[in-house]
Design goal:
Layout: H1 25-44, H2 47-60, H3 65-78, H4 81-94, H5 99-112, H6 115-128, H7 133-146, H8 149-162, H9 167-179, H10 183-196, H11 201-214, H12 217-230, H13 235-247, H14 251-263, H15 268-281, H16 285-298, H17 303-316, H18 319-332, H19 337-349, H20 353-366, H21 371-383, H22 387-399, H23 405-417, H24 421-434, H25 439-451, H26 455-468, H27 473-485, H28 489-502, H29 507-519, H30 523-533, H31 541-553, H32 557-570, H33 575-587, H34 591-604, H35 609-621, H36 625-638, H37 644-656, H38 660-673, H39 679-703
Helix pairs in contact: 1-2, 1-3, 2-3, 3-4, 3-5, 4-5, 5-6, 5-7, 6-7, 7-8, 7-9, 8-9, 9-10, 9-11, 10-11, 11-12, 11-13, 12-13, 13-14, 14-15, 15-16, 15-17, 16-17, 17-18, 18-19, 19-20, 20-21, 21-22, 22-23, 23-24, 23-25, 24-25, 25-26, 25-27, 26-27, 27-28, 27-29, 28-29, 29-30, 29-31, ...
Length: 713
């Protein structure tokens, strides 16, 4: 806010004392006439004419006190400080106790830059007349110019106590209060002034700025409106109203006001710079650049105009130009950490990560407690391929109190990539806490929980994410696969249906639904889904395998082999593909083919218990009992204890060893674990059951002393 104090208030009206204490006769009459003429010219604002008349009057009568007073005031008006001081010196010589003369000389001394002399004169004026309110006001004005706002407020308050109805005093106090940040007193002071002078445009302008700084933007704009209505050529009011409007993000109104301020020649460089920034924020970077060009042309050493133009150039994609402007700004303000950070961000966009990191490091040296710099440094280091450095930077930002949810999400993602699931989960939880409406945190934490085998927790997180964004197919897909792991195949199918509805070409969704349908025994549905999954990728490995397995369950052994052939062609080193094809060949009684395929699976994965089991069944079919027994034993040793395959192979070992009851028990338990056991194995179960039952009848006949007709021996 500009100082509102009336510098020339004390010289606005010269009071004449002892006007006619001079000689007599014609000479005296001429002096009096010239004096009156000088008065009239002074009142009309003809300072030069007044000085000429008063000088001639004093030549005729050197003791004409009032002429010195008026001429001193006229010299003050023209900025002739030496002339004014000379006249007030003479006035004080003629009347040393004239308080007003000391006050007026103080103003002239202040104008010449003699602040100490001015204060000494005002002190003397107050000592001579403690009720001289203008002396207090003028001393407050000088103290304001010196930045002694507290002292200025004391003097303005004293002036107001002596003359509470003086608008100038109230405006001076309000201005000083504003400079000390006491917005309430500033607003009150301007309000009191306006009650006395409702058309004081400067008071409205001053109160508007106080309200602006107090956060009352609507009130500020209302006061600026009044100031402009009273003084339509007040460029400062347009300028200040533009600031308030920009704070309210009313870019159009702000741009219009700064344009008007430019037309009125009010802070032109500042108006161009502010209008440019408003245009940039309003989405007109080209217009912003043109205005910043004008601002820089008027004020070529304004670092912030270079900063603004750099930001606008960055918005247009001119990263080279932006970096050049950031560099100019840094040259002008080398100790500004934000400038280095801004250039660093432009370098990140340009993929100059080394340059960006160097700038972030300088910004940190200048301001080691700025957590935002560490956040951005982490992004740059991650982009540069330094995940450990990125985590360290993010952690430093956290230590400084960062509450940026995206930071925790980023750090969690990097920890998850390192295998630190516990640390990643904690970071994702914090990200969710800081931004509970962000879906990324729920999705990522669900992934962590899936990796930890916490399927219920994963499903809960996916469900929260879906509630926030029902169109996020990734959430539905994640929940569907978690339900598959929970063996909730029906629930998984419902979620896969939602994924497919959102993305009818989602191969993973068809693949997943095919798996769920397979698990439920819907082999035809599984085949249809796998076929759909293979439309865009005929060698979709998982879909080929699953479709082949479904065809095997339906008895389409030829179709199954064809799918397994395709799967092997696409991934010749996949042990499981060779093994399942070997099993189907076993079911086709192609025991040699089964043995070859299972052998290839074993060579690819020597710890494949399933492949040893397949080869064992095929060797048994070929009559190689010792080879079958050896493979069954290897299979049982490698397969998970209690699994369906483990029980099937253990049952066969028992059967070969003529332990039929144990074989039947193992196979029946296997059937309960996997109801989809092939008809071939059901035949073995029936054979074991018949043998056990026959043996039981034989033992019963033997107990009666008879030989059972059902036994071959």
């Amino acid at each position: 806010m500009r100082i509102v104090g009336k510098f020339f208030a004390a010289v606005a009206v010269c009071l004449v004392g002892g006007l006619l204490a001079t000689g007599c006769g014609e000479k005296a009459g001429q002096a009096e006439a010239l004096f009156k003429s000088g008065q009239q010219r002074y009142d009309r604002g003809d300072w030069t004419g007044a000085i000429a008349d008063l000088t001639r009057a004093l030549e005729l009568d050197p003791k004409l006190i009032g002429a010195y007073d008026y001429r001193g005031c006229a010299h003050t008006r023209t900025g002739d400080w030496a002339g004014a001081i000379g006249d007030f010196d003479r006035l004080i010589q003629l009347d040393p106790k004239d308080s007003a003369a000391h006050e007026k000389r103080a103003l002239a001394k202040s104008g010449r830059g003699d602040v100490e002399g001015a204060i000494a004169d005002l002190n003397q004026a107050i000592e001579l007349n403690p009720t001289n309110a203008w002396a207090y006001n003028d001393r407050g004005l000088i103290k304001s110019k010196q930045g002694d706002w507290a002292g200025a407020r004391t003097d303005y308050n004293q002036a107001i106590r002596l003359d509470s109805g003086n608008v100038t005093f109230l405006e001076g106090l309000a201005s000083a209060a504003a400079r000390t940040g006491d917005w309430a007193e500033a607003i009150d002071g301007y309000a009191r002034a306006l009650r006395l002078e409702p058309k004081a445009a400067a008071a409205y302008e001053g109160r508007g700025e106080a309200k602006f700084n107090a956060g009352d933007l609507q009130g500020a704009i209302a006061d600026y409106n009044q100031a402009i209505e009273l003084d339509p050529k007040s460029g400062a009011s347009y300028f200040q109203r533009g600031l308030a409007e920009s704070r309210m993000r009313d870019w159009k109104a702000a741009i219009d006001d700064w344009s008007r301020a430019i037309d009125l020649n009010a802070d032109v460089a500042g108006s161009f710079a502010n209008r440019a920034e408003a245009k940039r924020l309003a989405g007109d970077p080209e217009g912003a650049i043109r205005d910043f060009d004008r601002a820089i042309g008027l004020k070529p050493k304004d670092a912030w105009s270079f900063l603004g133009r750099a930001s606008a150039k960055s918005r247009t994609g001119d990263l080279e130009g932006a970096i050049e402007d950031f560099t100019h700004a840094i040259d002008l303000a080398p100790a500004s950490a934000p400038l280095y950070q801004s250039r660093a961000l432009a370098r990140v966009r340009k993929a100059d990560y080394a340059g960006a990191i160097a700038d972030f490091d300088i910004a940190i040296q200048l301001n080691p407690t700025d957590r935002v710099v560490y956040e951005n440094l982490g992004i740059a280091k991650e982009a540069a391929g330094d995940p450990a450095g990125a985590i360290a930077a993010y952690s430093k930002a956290v230590a400084l109190g960062s509450t940026n949810a995206f930071l925790f999400y980023n750090r969690g993602r990097l920890k998850m990539e390192k295998g630190d699931l516990a640390g990643a989960g904690a970071d994702f939880s914090r990200a969710i806490e800081l931004n509970p409406k962000g879906t990324a945190g729920y999705e990522s934490r669900a992934s962590v929980r899936s990796g930890q085998g916490d399927w219920d927790g994963a499903i809960a997180d996916y469900t929260r994410g879906i509630a926030l964004d029902p169109a996020d197919r990734k959430m539905f897909a994640g929940r569907a696969f978690a339900k598959v792991e929970k063996e909730d195949y029906s629930g998984a199918i419902l979620d896969f249906n939602r994924v497919i509805a959102l993305d009818p070409k989602s191969a993973p969704a068809y693949d997943g639904r095919g798996l769920a349908r397979f698990k439920l025994g819907d082999y035809r549905g599984a085949i249809a889904d796998c076929t759909k999954a293979m439309e865009g990728n005929p060698t979709n490995h998982a879909a080929c395998l699953r479709r082949g397995l479904a065809k095997e369950k339906l008895g389409d052994l030829e179709g199954a082999v064809a799918d397994f052939d395709r799967a092997i062609q696409g991934a010749p080193n996949d042990s499981s593909a060779w093994n399942v094809r070997g099993w189907v060949k076993y079911l086709k009684k192609d025991f040699d083919g089964a043995i070859n395929d299972a052998g290839r699976a074993i060579r690819l994965d020597p710890n494949s218990g399933a492949a040893y089991g397949t080869r064992a069944w095929a060797r048994y079919g070929n009559g190689d009992i010792p080879g079958a027994v050896e493979d069954f034993r290897r299979a049982v040793g490698l397969l998970p204890s209690g699994s369906a395959d483990f029980l099937l192979d253990r049952g066969m070992l028992a059967f070969i060893g003529q332990e039929y009851a144990q074989a039947l028990s193992s196979w029946e338990l296997a059937g309960s674990k996997d109801p989809t056991i092939s008809p071939e194995l059901h035949a073995w179960i029936a054979r074991a059951r018949a043998t056990v039952e026959a043996k039981a009848r034989s033992e019963a006949w033997a107990a009666q002393g008879s030989r059972s007709p059902h036994l071959p021996y």
